Structures are given as C-alpha cells and as structure tokens.
C-alpha cells in the first residue's frame, strides 16, 4: 500500500522512528511530507532534524502561514499527491485545521482513503469557517486516530460517525530514551532536583513547583528547561518566595538531547493545570522520563493519571502542598524511588514503544484498505 503521511510534527527527529517501523510493515511504501521547519508560537523555531530516515521517502516542502496552527497549509501538496499517487493519506492534524481540509479534499479527488489525528479532549465549538472544515473532514475521511480516551468521546459528541482508534501520536524509542549508566545511590541531604522539560507556559502549572520548594528541604532544587512567556513570572515568584538560589532556568534542548537532561533530574514533575480551553492531552515528557528511569510526579489534569498509572505519583492540580508531600515520599523512601524508576520504564516498554504505535497504526491502514 502506498501511504502519504503529512506532518509538521515530524520535523522532530526522535519522532521519525515511528516511520521507520511503519516502513518495515509488509507491503508499505511510505512517503512523508513535512516542512523545513515549524515556527512555534513561543518564538522558537524547530528545524527539520533528519535522525531516522531509513526505509521511506521524505519530501520537504514549504508551509504557507507557518506558525499558524489552524490556518497553515501546503501550497505544493496537490502536485505531490499526483506524483506519489497514495492509496492512504495520513493527515497528522486536528480535524478543524485548514491543512486537514486541504489534504482530505485532495485525497478525495484522487480517490485515496484518508484519516486524521486528534488530541482535543475538551468539547469546543468553532465559528465559520472552522466548523464547516471540521464537518467536511468528518464526512470525507475513512478513519480517525485519537490520542486519548476523552478525544474519542469528543469526536462522537461533535458528530463524527466513522471508526475511531485510540493510539498516541508517537511512541518512544527506548533505545534512545534510556539510562546510560546506573544512578548512584543517593546520599541523604545531597541535592535533589525537581525537573521540568517543555514550554514555559501558563497551562503547565509551573508556579506550583516553585511554591512546593518553600515546603521542602533546602537541598531540593528546581530546574526549568525550555522557552516560553512564563519565565519572567517564574523568576519573580522565586524571588518573592526567597528561593531564587534554588531555581535554575535553562534554554530548550534539541529532541535528541532530551534523554541526557532527563537522566540528570532526580524527579520529573508535570504540574499541568486544566483551563476552560485546555487540559493535558497526554504529557509526552512523562513517558520520556519514565523510559529514562527517572521517577515522575504529575497532576491529575486530563490524561496524566492514565499515562502514569501506578508507575509514578499523582497530586491534585494546583496543590503545592500535595506536590511537596509526593516529593517527600521519594526522599523518605529509597525503595519506593527505585520501584517507580523500574516500573516507569516497564510501562513504556509495554505500552508506548515506537514499534507498538507503528503496529497499531498499520492495522488501521489494513482495515481502511479492506473497506
């Protein structure tokens, strides 16, 4: 089967491993369409990383309105489709985006079967033309992939009647996301780092980490790795609470460096806070840290408790006292710390590898081809 995947997310090199695994599936002839870069709304620019490119073709083509999540599109996509002649068009975008409408319409013209992907786990209605784009896509795709349980429910509630398959967007390469050497036994009273890796934005609940520091021993530290508009507010909060000397900010790192920085943390904290227009859709950094045998603590926002399950600790979102208590559990119980480090990696191996995600996606393709 000839598969054309359209994805701006695949400028990230570590995510490309899924495509290598898909290309290994019987009969798959895979082509990726991706831009040379994606301009994020936090001002950062992620250039295309070519890390895992074996077994499939990559077509790099410009995006119009690069940086606009809802309005971007691919000016040369029609020509690409005519040349590739795909049987399946995998649109790695939300159903209300213009790029999804563009790709679904072009796929329909050449009689290719198409599908889209969604993370959206809050019910939202859209003004014209986005609702019309969404409804067109609902009618013209053959299947939908949902990254979490709530996203599948939202699709049904909004009127989608086709097949829905719950599969995370990407798996994790546990050959990369792993501990390079055993963590040495911790000496009581030595520095203990609460880490965050990601965008410094309000919905990640980052002030909760700084507030929790005030309730923890002085040897506890926080490191924020990433870029975003919350940095100055976090610096001001740390100064106001007299913990500035215990808080470090570092710039974001390329995806291939993430395993190294995750290993340097004693615990990864994802304190996401639900907002009227957002709640955590997966929490990819949780699985990355778990694969590196770094214990994780997450809030109870959205999908976080399902991703962590019994392989980490959960606290009520926004509750800094509860977060500090979870950290103390790890400080006071080395056996619990070691158990969660082990269980975290096992959970990723059993549920979230690139091979497993690719296999599940291939099975969806097979079902589409049989229709």
Anisotropy-based shape = globular
What number of domains? 2
Spatial sequence of strands, sheet with the most strands: 5-2-1-6-7-8-9
What letter string, H or E per element, gives the SSE order? EHEEEEHEHEHEHEEHEHEHEHEHEHHH
Helix content: 25-40%
**Annotated CATH topology of the largest domain:** Rossmann fold
Counting DSSP H or I runs of 4 or more residues, the number of helices is 13
The CATH architecture assignment of the largest domain turns out to be: 3-Layer(aba) Sandwich
Find the count of extended strands (DSSP E, 2+ residues).
15
Give the termini distance in whole angstroms. 14 Å
CATH superfamily grouping of the largest domain: Glycogen Phosphorylase B
Largest sheet: 7 strands, parallel
**Low-confidence sequence ranges:** none
What is the C-level CATH assignment of the largest domain? Alpha Beta
The radius of gyration computed from the alpha-carbon positions, rounded to a whole number of angstroms, is 21 Å
Strand content: 15-25%
- Report the average pLDDT across residues: 95
Which structural class fits the helix and strand makeup? alpha/beta
Write out key terms for the chains shown.
Rossmann fold, globular, 371 residues, 2 domains, alpha/beta, 15 strands
Helix/strand layout:
Elements: E1 2-6, H1 17-23, E2 29-34, E3 37-39, E4 45-47, E5 57-60, H2 77-84, E6 88-91, H3 98-109, E7 113-118, H4 130-140, E8 143-146, H5 149-157, E9 164-166, E10 192-197, H6 207-213, E11 220-225, H7 231-240, E12 247-250, H8 258-264, E13 267-270, H9 284-291, E14 296-299, H10 304-308, E15 313-315, H11 320-332, H12 334-351, H13 354-370
Parallel strand pairs: 1-2, 1-6, 2-5, 6-7, 7-8, 8-9, 10-11, 10-13, 11-12, 13-14, 14-15
Antiparallel strand pairs: 3-4
Helix pairs in contact: 1-13, 3-4, 6-11, 9-12
